[in-house]
Fold:
Amino acid sequence: SWPLKLSPMRGLSYLLGNPVVMWCGLAAVVACLRQLIRRISVPELLVVLLYFGSLLQWAATPRAVTFYYYYYPAAMFLSVAITVALKRLGRTHVLGVSVSLALCLAAAVVFLYCYPRMTHLESPWDCMFGCWV
Structure:
C-alpha cells in the first residue's frame, strides 16, 4: 500500500517522483494494456512488459518495499508509457488545449511547487508556493 499512499510522508515525499507523471503514467499503462488486449502492438507490449517486469523485483525481494530503489526503475517506464499512450491518442484537444501540453504544464507546475522543498531551500523560499503540514 505504500506506493499508493496519498498523504505526504515528509521524509520520503520527494523520492516518490512527480505525482502528475506517476498517476498519469499508471493511467497510461492501463491504456496500453487495453490497447494490447484489443490488438497486439510492439510499443504497448514493450511498455507493459518493461513496467511489470521491473515491478517483479518486489515479489522476489524479501526486504520491505519501502526502499526507493525497488520502484524507481519501474517508475522510469511510466514516462515512456505516457508517450506511447499520447501517441496512440493523437492530437486530442480538451477546451482548446492539447492533452499533451496540459500534461506537461501540470507536471511543470507540480515540479515548481515541490522544488523548493526538494532542495531544502531556506525560508521564505521553502514555502514559496505553499507548505505541507
Summary: The longest strand covers residues 93-94.
